[in-house]
Design goal:
With 303 residues, the protein is of the alpha/beta class. Helices cover 41% and strands 17% of the residues. A seven-stranded mixed sheet has the order 3-2-1-4-5-7-6, with helices on both faces. The protein is globular. Bound molecules: S-adenosylmethionine (SAM).
Length: 303
């Protein structure tokens, strides 16, 4: 990298992470992060599902598989993957669950470009079609896909509710929506716990472009899916298999963070000196699934 680009990158990190009056939109964040992911073998940007995983790549794969399996992806499916990062999960699903076709939408142009190259290099371009576009304004025909999935990204969407409506529109009747998503944890405990909750949520929401409209807990999440027309709704917290095990893994393997930009490494390493309970007090992590009804309201039940 040219010294002038390196300087611009460092100033970008400085302003993003250390200037309390400055935030970036989602595409700005991911352009800045570029490929400095903490994973070793892939380019995942998620926190992982640590129920059985023992390293970051395995945990990221496990999260993708949890979403793919909850969505029941299979050969008959046409899938829309929103917020696909560098496409790791699409490649994994194409190689394991083998859905007939995956279309991806991602707002960050730099990620789309690299993800498309990775897919082409693996000869998967006929199965996986990755495009630049927004999950809240999908350039996708109504009732044209069987599954809509979003791995750790819907918290960014402006708004998540707009995404629910779009997902409902593009799904065929009987189609399934599945998300792995970050929301605020319920506020429990006395003053110190409530303060930690507030700081933890505010820091993450402020630095990771989570609009205030997306800050609601599980019951509201469930209600918003129902209001968007979905049924068979499940919103389950999997936070115990995400935050604390990730924190413990990083504390035991701090060299993992050396793959991050030095400006991002510093706050990440400082956070490792605190208890996971405190750092993640304000955050819940949910696996949500819902189905578009077979019989739409107003449609006759008789042939
Ligand atoms: C935390 S990363 C997760 C990436 C990937 N799913 C993974 O697990 O590695 C969030 C992703 O959401 C994308 N994103 C954010 N807002 C979006 C929007 N409105 N529409 C589509 N993608 C969006 C970002 O570009 C980024 O790829």
């Amino acid at each position: 990298m040219l010294p002038s680009n390196r300087l611009r990158e460092s100033l970008g990190y400085l302003n993003w992470l250390y200037n309390p009056f400055h935030g970036l939109d989602a595409a700005g964040i991911y352009d800045l992060l570029a490929t400095s992911a903490a994973t070793e073998r892939g380019l995942y940007l998620n926190l992982g599902y640590w129920r059985e995983a023992t390293d970051l790549d395995a945990a990221s794969d496990a999260l993708a598989m949890l979403v793919g399996e909850t969505a029941r992806l299979g050969p008959a499916d046409s899938v829309l993957d929103c917020g696909f990062g560098f496409g790791d999960q699409d490649i994994l699903w194409a190689q394991t669950l083998k859905p007939g076709r995956i279309v991806g939408l991602n707002i960050t142009a730099s990620q789309v470009e690299l993800a498309r190259r990775r897919v082409a290099q693996l000869g998967l371009h006929e199965q996986i079609d990755l495009r630049q576009g927004s999950a809240t304004d999908m350039p996708i025909e109504s009732a044209s896909v069987d599954k809509v999935v979003a791995v750790e990204c819907a918290f960014h969407f402006r708004t998540r509710e707009a995404f629910f409506r779009e997902a409902w529109r593009v799904l065929r009747p009987g189609g399934r929506l599945v998300l792995a998503d970050i929301i605020p944890a319920p506020r429990i405990g006395g003053f110190p716990a409530r303060l930690e909750h507030r700081v933890s949520w505010r820091l993450v929401a402020g630095k990771f472009a989570i609009p205030p409209e997306n800050a609601y807990t599980k019951p509201t999440y469930h209600a918003k899916l129902a209001m968007s027309g979905f049924e068979q709704i499940r919103v389950e917290s999997i936070r115990e298999h995400v935050y604390a095990p990730l924190h413990h893994f990083l504390a035991e393997h701090p060299q993992t963070l050396d793959r991050l930009h030095p400006m991002a490494r510093l706050p990440a390493k400082l956070a490792l000196r605190l208890e996971a309970t405190s750092v993640y007090r304000g955050l819940d992590y949910v696996l949500a699934s819902a189905v578009k009804p077979q019989q739409l309201p107003g449609a006759s039940r008789r042939p």
